[in-house]
Amino acid sequence: xxxxxxxxxxxxxxxxxxxxxxxxxxxxxxxxxxxxxxxxxxxxxxxxxxxxxxxxxxxxxxxxxxxxxxxxxxxxxxxxxxxxxxxxxxxxxxxxxxxxxxxxxxxxxxxxxxxxxxxxxxxxxxxxxxxxxxxxxxxxxxxxxxxxxxxxxxxxxxxxxxxxxxxxxxxxxxxxxxxxxxxxxxxxxxxxxxxxxxxxxxxxxxxxxxxxxxxxxxxxxxxxxxxxxxxxxxxxxxxxxxxxxxxxxxxxxxxxxxxxxxxxxxxxxxxxxxxxxxxxxxxxxxxxxxxxxxxxxxxxxxxxxxxxxxxxxxxxxxxxxxxxxxxxxxxxxxxxxxxxxxxxxxxxxxxxxxxxxxxxxxxxxxxxxxxxxxxxxxxxxxxxxxxxxxxxxxxxxxxxxxxxxxxxxxxxxxxxxxxxxxxxxxxxxxxxxxxxxxxxxxxxxxxxxxxxxxxxxxxxxxxxxxxxxxxxxxxxxxxxxxxxxxxxxxxxxxxxxxxxxxxxxxxxxxxxxxxxxxxxxxxxxxxxxxxxxxxxxxxxxxxxxxxxxxxxxxxxxxxxxxxxxxxxxxxxxxxxxxxxxxxxxxxxxxxxxxxxxxxxxxxxxxxxxxxxxxxxxxxxxxxxxxx
Length: 627
Known about the structure:
Layout: H1 15-19, E1 23-29, E2 35-42, E3 45-52, E4 59-60, E5 78-81, E6 84-89, E7 93-98, E8 105-106, E9 113-119, E10 125-132, E11 135-142, E12 150-154, E13 158-164, E14 170-176, E15 187-194, E16 202-210, E17 218-223, E18 229-234, E19 241-246, E20 252-256, E21 274-276, E22 282-289, E23 292-299, E24 306-307, E25 316-322, E26 328-334, E27 341-346, E28 349-355, E29 370-375, E30 381-387, E31 402-406, H2 420-426, E32 431-436, H3 445-449, H4 458-472, E33 481-486, H5 488-499, E34 506-510, H6 516-522, H7 530-534, H8 542-548, E35 561-566, H9 574-586, E36 591-596, H10 606-625
Parallel strand pairs: 31-32, 31-33, 33-34, 34-35, 35-36
Antiparallel strand pairs: 1-2, 2-3, 3-4, 5-6, 6-7, 7-8, 9-10, 10-11, 11-12, 13-14, 14-15, 15-16, 17-18, 18-19, 19-20, 21-22, 22-23, 23-24, 25-26, 26-27, 27-28, 29-30, 30-32
Helix pairs in contact: 4-5
């Protein structure tokens, strides 16, 4: 194998570029349409920031607090209405404050976990998702804090995305039950409210509008400002499309059919892919196709959806939020070469309100991923994104080393947005392929359901298939293949190292699952029955769980592996990593094990990110580049 030249000094990306980045998580408008509000993740904390129409600079609103909900994987952290901010602090308590001035004050007692606060059009009531001792519900409270919260809806296992009708007498929401996950089967529910005097609203009547069975996933209900329509995303056609329900005629119709997915996998609360224009004549939405999530505008009557050309420079558009007045909308947008930005658009003019990084790189200094397709053993098409290595004038001889990146979930998707960690290695001479193995979202319902019963089989086959395809195309060195992933992606790493020893030169595993029995028994409520569909229900499928758990085949691992784990991980317990490391130690398999105090299921602290990235780089130099 030819030696590799150390390309680190040629890279425009440094570790500090990764550790100093701000996570831009959500954006919305105040109801006056003059103030934009967004959430920034800074280290372990969430900070709400706002900027008025005439403000030259943004203002922080939540100093001393850490904004973030913790129902499931989080999300649904804040909302804004009539000049007031409502937010969840540290996942435990609702607070409110005026945008103009003042200190936050508690809006409800610290009890359970609130999320997804949503204010009625008249500003009187706030409905939110509430979880306590594994019982979920929708609750309602007076925004003036004159009443204690009360339960509005209960009985289903999960609730998500509550939204108010503009005349306040109705709400809509998404709900579902075990063993389904929200991308398997959910229900769109419309509730009629009874409001009497100053008493809190009561639910008078309920009707399920869509998704009554387990073969349709419904996502994000949204009422039109004029009150006539309820929009939502549904995959009943095989792809996730935008649908309109006419509240007067009670007729559903698909607004735009295309081979792409509007809905996202609902891992967290607060995801938003649909929004009406202020005049209720157009619907804005985002849709994924070939790894790119673009924004579209579609007239409700007589016309087809068209891309928002003003955003043509961006390949990942998220959290789309039309202004309640005029024709503006806001979003978070990025591309492979542009780190995330908070944007607002008015006609053809873009205003940048926040940047996640200093954007110090020139065009062409980062790699632009290309969609790749190959065939699985059964003939199925499998998808991914290939990042050519940089710099292009590399003096390193031979084909490049390849990192096979496996996303989490496993129901998630690698997209063409800004991926700093992947670019860090691409700009050091590695090629990278981000694998969207069978079971990934963004390629239609059939593709997303393909992993049912096949977890630990198809994901591994597709990871190996991606690498072999690029080797066959002379785009990667067969002797320098790396597999890397976190969570479910970490499981695929460990599983691949047990069933295909010697194929990958090294593995990088972040909080990966090693014992599927422990995952089924110990994980949080959201995923408590996830393995039923991925592997089969217990105890009937016990042999499948054992056969596909890397722990019980750990002695087959002979390739170098570096393992990372947080001590506060509530999804994958540290004991799962400990067990794999014990086998590696006993058999003297080259490995490293790094445990981060205070970190959970993913890294938030800058010092953790810096240590992690430098440890991986050093490990790969030793075991892949110069081995």
